[in-house]
Amino acid sequence: MIFKGEKDEIILENNVVSENNKKVKKFGVLLCADESEYVKEKYGGYFGVFVRMLSEEGEKWDLFRVILNEFPSDEEVEFYDGFVITGSCSDAHSNDFWICKLVSFLHKLDFLKKKVLGICFGHQILARSLGGKTGRATSGWDIGLRTIHFSSSSNKILSTFKIPSTLNIIECHQDVVLEVPAKVEVIGRSNKTTIEMFKYGDHMMGIQGHPEYNIDILLHLLDRLLLKHLIGVKYADELRTKFMDACEPDKEAWRKLCVNFIKGRL
């Protein structure tokens, strides 16, 4: 990964060129969450979690705290190859200033055909920006390991990269995408949520679960949800007991799927 200040980097009008004059791919993480000190110290924040999962040699990754109204300028956006939208404790259907600004920003990325990968809240806000509807799930919270079943239309992609037709993923949400417009293709479902994944054209994809999470991050998140009174003590204790012996999700398969999507190889 390349950071500003390294000796083999030349910066030219926000574009990044390596010492052999080859354009360096640039990606941005749109942070929509308040991060805990635990995740910052152990994983380098959610930015570190995503970069660790998605980055490849010679790329440049930047962080934009959109929850604090930090967005790329119109001039900067042109030089990015793609963006990842993180999860959040906020509601994708709310009209907070930064959320409405994020919806407008996603309209711009759609117009420019930039690669966008939305995770959990990111999945929901991306669907909203495309004309979909989001809201509370009638079945309540979904926290834990869930099996995603891919649509038959995804078979070619899955077989190309040797990805199974079902994958386990960590879920932690109470909101869902309720409806998507006809232009959006639903490509994944579970027995709890009908719109677990969607794809729009070749440049936008949403995943309701958390391919970036491990069990440790989920257990820590339970404590945060409990402190915020978003879940009850009994429910949290039941989940902790269940997760202590739970197997890890199919992280490598999810990594492969997400990397190949955002790098334009699907």
UniProtKB/TrEMBL annotation:
The keyword Transmembrane helix does not apply. InterPro entries: ChyE-like (IPR044992), Class_I_gatase-like (IPR029062), GATASE (IPR017926). One of its GO terms (biological process) is glucosinolate metabolic process. This is Glutamine amidotransferase domain-containing protein. It comes from Saponaria officinalis. GO terms for molecular function: peptidase activity. The keyword Cytoplasm applies. One of its GO terms (cellular component) is cytosol. Its main location: cytoplasm. Residues 66-214 form the Glutamine amidotransferase domain. Pathway: Secondary metabolite biosynthesis. Pfam families: GATase. Keywords: Cytoplasm, Hydrolase. It is found in: Cytoplasm, Cytosol. Belongs to the peptidase C26 family.
